[in-house]
Amino acid sequence: xxxxxxxxxxxxxxxxxxxxxxxxxxxxxxxxxxxxxxxxxxxxxxxxxxxxxxxxxxxxxxxxxxxxxxxxxxxxxxxxxxxxxxxxxxxxxxxxxxxxxxxxxxxxxxxxxxxxxxxxxxxxxxxxxxxxxxxxxxxxxxxxxxxxxxxxxxxxxxxxxxxxxxxxxxxxxxxxxxxxxxxxxxxxxxxxxxxxxxxxxxxxxxxxxxxxxxxxxxxxxxxxxxxxxxxxxxxxxxxxxxxxxxxxxxxxxxxxxxxxxxxxxxxxxxxxxxxxxxxxxxxxxxxxxxxxxxxxxxxxxxxxxxxxxxxxxxxxxxxxxxxxxxxxxxxxxxxxxxxxxxxxxxxxxxxxxxxxxxxx
Length: 360
What we know:
Distance between the termini: 79 Å
Strand content: 15-25%
Number of helices: 4
Structural class: alpha+beta
Number of strands: 8
Order of helices and strands: HEEEEEEEEHHH
């Protein structure tokens, strides 16, 4: 299969990268698709006017993705980037050796996406022109058959026009549904990107929270030790004040007072750090709620896309039925025209016979 594609497709840009795919069960972990760095290439199919990204590892395709104007390549780190393929229901990730290689691949992805948009616009303009020509052809045939004998096949011709009107209506409905489906896919990809961003932030917050919890436990132990030391120093100060000592005792009292103030300042700083960590914990819970909301929105969008796909399939089925009906109508008209030609030929023979009789 791949040799056949290479016969009609040619790569115009290639890069070496480690390929990953998102875990379909969790949608948050990356699964390596190759043990080593492989070649990732952009291909162009001139016959179909399609751009694709293809990467082959051994005898199987690791990446076989058609590029659409709605795709977006996102840099998530200095050497890693990703994009979502809604048709394959997956997300691809590429890890490069240098930041420059990632930048080159990202710029080429943007250029190919713009080229795919232009190709799609040209294809749509061509389809509209073909539709206009197919509508104009039956009208020209009707103009040529305005002689009285055409009255005998007027019924099937009206049926043909009604079939073509239904065909045009179904085509318009199909284009409208495809547009809705494309918009739904774009929304789904944006939600997936938002979800992955939230999950990345969530993982970072979880790691920070675990580290903070470990630090809080350590700081609590230090705080308890400082409190015990503070109480001991206060007891010593009280004892010195009770005995009313002078000289060296006064110097020791000053040192103990200074140490007590330093410990109280340290306790205040630790309390502020604990307060900051508690605020981070609240932010973590807010991120959890945002992630759940994004998951819910993503599920709703997937249900909507499924419904749109069913509507597109129904429209395509109705369109195929209408085309078959039009073909049957064309066959009936052709048979009627053949019968009409035979009758006209017979009438012409009869006219020549009458002319010969009149001449005699």
